[in-house]
Amino acid sequence: MKIFFVFLLAGFISMGYAQVYYPEKVNSKTVKLYEKALDLLKDNQIKEATPLLAQCIKEDSNFVDAYLSLAGAFGELKRYPQSISLYEKARRKDTAYFVIYNLPYSINLAGLGKFDEALKAVQAFLAYPRLNERSIKSAQYRKRCYEFAIAYASKHPGTNYAFSPVNLGDSVNTAESEYYPSVTVTDSLLVFTRHGEHGREDFVESRISKNGFSAWKIIDGDINIEPKKGAITVSQDGEWMLFAGQLMDQAYKSFDIYISYYTPKGWSEPQNLGPNINTEFWESSPSISPDKRALYFSSNRPGGSGGADLYVSYRMPNGKWGPAENMGPSVNTAGDELAPFIHADNQTLYYTSDGLPGYGGSDLFVMRKNSKGEWGTPENLGYPINTIENEGSLAVSADGLTAYYASDRSDSRGGLDIYKFSMRPDIRPYRTLYVKGKVMDKKTGKNLPSYVELTDNSNNKALMKIQTDEVGDYFITLPTGNDYTFTVNRKGYLFYSELMELGKKDADSVYKKDIYLQPVELNASVTFHNIQFTTNSYQLPNAAMIELEKLVQVLTENPSLKVEIGGHTDNVGKAEDNLALSTNRAKTIVDFLVTRNISINRLTFKGYGSTKPIADNTTEQGRAQNRRTAFTITGL
């Protein structure tokens, strides 16, 4: 808000109104004190200048310039109520002299959320006939911001939501600046960047528990060796850290994106993510998706929409990152898009932009994926989360209820501190569940690194696909409100699948599921969980495609494999009818496989009716388990 002092010090507006206030009548001693305060303001020593300006007012209660300067100083310090009060006192003393100060006055009104009054003030400023081009341009920009704020408020009527950021305290914050917070999916670890001496930046962590935040500590390992770095993010499972830095032995030229892996000895030596991510231009603010398959970041490389744009790179099956893709004009503008944060739901993205309509400076926005997996229209997070200042990065907890951000509010320990606040319901991400476990060989119990995939049953689209770690452990987030199919793949093994009916499950629950994969061998059998035929029907349900495509993959990877598709029913009804129905259901699956270029010579089908129950037919739950289809390997 340096604009407050532009009027005071630059003098680029011609005064033309008759005045009641006469500066020449201020006594020389007070003028010298005032000039000393102005020198401090020029050197950006605002806090040091305020007591001198207050003394000027005490010595001469009609010293309008001192009122205006102190109002500007308080505005710089974000002490908006005091600033507004002083501007209004100056206006009462000389309305004509005050006219050109309507612009900084309006900015302070907007800082306090009084956008209607701010709009009136800036309109009064624009009515002044002797404004230069720079003043007009600045005022028109503010006018657009106030009009946006008023329109936003009319579309989002007031609720009981209270924006009350809480400083994370001495366990996290110091007299230095802390910024760029990131949290793990279990909300157990907070990592952030701290600015130190001589421009050095260090990565810091604090553990989160029900008792609060543990005392901060510099992150162990090689990740903190280099001084030129920042914008750190931690993967949802806490195993990776990515950050922007200029490591001279690896950098392409400017800031690049690096990765470090957790080891028993601390965080590994950072590795440059290579030319598909980094260029000779600036890359920063990485954010990794919960399945570690998508990396979002900002870059000012040529070919974008202007300024810094958001990009995304997808991890390929070989583990390397694919060429970065510009996220396009629906996201990027002629301004700067920065600080992307992909939530644990893998469907909600927060970021900052100064190129979209907003409150002034850079605002925070949210985008959500639609049912087709496409990003929707960016939505401004609204006041008071967004203000007339430049907003920075935002991190949101896995449950979507709490956000973390950096600010220099009045209770800051020094510079930027990290705060948390409750998210307004309409801008929260989707609620999530968590499933964790281990993938193992069913016969030997050996740990098996594998691919774990989650598919949305409503549209048969893969929501996320993750690679377990080297010992087969996985951690996956599941947005609530839908039913999913959970599949696990590894070459040389039959796929595993399970229908996860989570539409009515409570959010923020953790499920443990160890997976045992069946090796590809004679007589090995897998039951389909998603192929649930309607009563007396043998038409394939839409959700059947999820598992059938996995069977196609197994048969394609093992071209000599032969299978039998078996159909089964419960014992309700006539035995001959059940036999015919189960046969037709098995044949339907074979017919589908043939359409996917699987040779009929490799396929057989058989209906067993109710002759091979796997559960008690006297209960509905047991009968449901007996109504099944399965495949069995009959030849290798």
Structural features:
34 strands; alpha+beta; single chain; 12 helices; five-stranded antiparallel β-sheet; Serine Threonine Protein Phosphatase 5, Tetratricopeptide repeat; Immunoglobulin-like; 24% helix; 636 residues
Overview of the structural elements:
It is built from twelve helices and 34 strands. It is of the alpha+beta class and 636 residues long. It folds into four domains: 153 residues, Serine Threonine Protein Phosphatase 5, Tetratricopeptide repeat (Alpha Horseshoe), CATH 1.25.40.10; 253 residues, Neuraminidase, CATH 2.120.10.30; 89 residues, Sandwich (Immunoglobulin-like); 115 residues, OmpA-like domain (60s Ribosomal Protein L30, Chain: A, 2-Layer Sandwich), CATH 3.30.1330.60. Strands 2, 3, 4, 5 and 6 form a five-stranded antiparallel β-sheet that branches. Strands 7, 8, 9, 10 and 11 form a five-stranded antiparallel β-sheet that branches. A hairpin with a 5-residue loop joins strand 12 and strand 13. Helix 2 runs antiparallel to helix 3, helix 3 runs antiparallel to helix 4 and helix 5 runs antiparallel to helix 7.
Termini gap? 74 Å
User: How would you characterize the largest beta sheet?
Assistant: 5 strands, antiparallel
Structural class per helix/strand content? alpha+beta
| Name of the CATH architecture of the largest domain | 6 Propeller
Mean pLDDT score, rounded? Answer: 88
Strand content: 25-35%
Shape: elongated
CATH topology of the largest domain, by name, is Neuraminidase
Give the uncertain stretches in residue-range form. Answer: 1-18
The tally of domains stands at 4
Any idea what the CATH superfamily of the largest domain is called?
A: TolB, C-terminal domain
Helix content: 10-25%
| Rg from Cα | 32 Å
Number of helices: 12
Name the CATH class of the largest domain.
Answer: Mainly Beta
